[in-house]
């Protein structure tokens, strides 16, 4: 492995993104726009005095879910283009290590994910007045980790698609089940045993649980620490699996 090779890959991918304004808009603007739609959806909500807003709960969770979905989609399609265009195959004929490629791609998209998360979080707090107990830094940490998770899953799933349409088809297979079982609609402890078992192996469940801890505690709790460790471990595992999908060409 070579840090210079990884960084060179990162610069190349960022340069490609810079020449693709639609992808930049999708990454930076779409999560904030969707969050705005969530806010205005509950704008006229009637609340009892002192009752929390629905946006404070749902908007907080969406700060993690929207970046996850967008980064999964952008990363999987971009990586697929690298494979189908022959760029990845040509790179694999060079001495560059497979880990350098994966780290380079992951770092490039993770940098975009950080910008995406910062934009959405700033809008949520300073425009829509998101009100939770935990500090914004914890929210940003969970949201960024969730966006990087979308990057890692996108890199891995792109290996199993042959066209961009097939890459999009992974959305209902990988993303939608997690949205249904993460605890957004029904608390996990209210699900039946089969669904609870399925939710335990889905990364978004830990993201939602972590944000629940942030919403109700000012300090880092043991549950929050465990959720962050699990999410980080899944990210590393997905990146390792993604590197195994690369084949050295002669």
TrEMBL record:
Keywords: Antibiotic resistance, Cell membrane, Membrane, Transmembrane, Transmembrane helix, Transport. It is found in: Cell membrane. This is Transport permease protein. GO terms for molecular function: ABC-type transporter activity. Belongs to the ABC-2 integral membrane protein family. Pfam families: ABC2_membrane. Residues 22-249 form the ABC transmembrane type-2 domain. It comes from the Bacteria. One of its GO terms (biological process) is response to antibiotic. Its main location: membrane. The chain crosses the membrane at residues 24-42, 58-80, 101-126, 138-161, 168-187, 228-246. It comes from Psychromicrobium lacuslunae. GO terms for cellular component: ATP-binding cassette (ABC) transporter complex. It is a multi-pass membrane protein.
């Amino acid at each position: 492995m070579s840090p210079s090779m990884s960084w060179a890959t990162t610069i190349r991918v960022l340069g490609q993104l810079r020449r693709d304004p639609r992808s930049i808009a999708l990454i930076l603007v779409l999560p904030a726009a969707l969050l705005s739609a969530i806010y205005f959806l509950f704008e006229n909500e009637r609340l009892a005095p002192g009752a929390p807003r629905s946006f404070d709960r749902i908007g907080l969770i969406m700060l993690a879910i929207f970046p996850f979905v967008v980064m999964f989609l952008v990363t999987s399609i971009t990586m697929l283009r690298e494979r189908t265009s022959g760029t990845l195959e040509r790179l694999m004929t060079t001495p560059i290590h497979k880990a350098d490629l994966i780290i380079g791609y992951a770092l490039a998209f993770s940098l975009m994910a950080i910008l995406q998360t910062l934009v959405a979080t700033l809008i949520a707090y300073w425009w829509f007045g998101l009100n939770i107990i935990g500090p914004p830094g914890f929210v940003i940490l969970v949201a960024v980790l969730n966006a990087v998770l979308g990057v890692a899953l996108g890199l891995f799933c792109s290996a199993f698609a042959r066209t961009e349409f097939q890459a999009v088809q992974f959305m209902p297979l990988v993303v939608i089940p997690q949205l249904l079982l993460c605890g957004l609609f029904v608390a996990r402890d209210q699900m039946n045993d089969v669904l609870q078992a399925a939710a335990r192996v889905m990364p978004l469940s830990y993201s939602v649980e972590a944000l629940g801890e942030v919403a109700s505690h000012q300090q880092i709790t043991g549950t929050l620490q465990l959720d962050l460790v699990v999410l980080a471990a899944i990210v590393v595992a997905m990146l390792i699996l993604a590197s195994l999908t690369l084949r050295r060409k002669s």
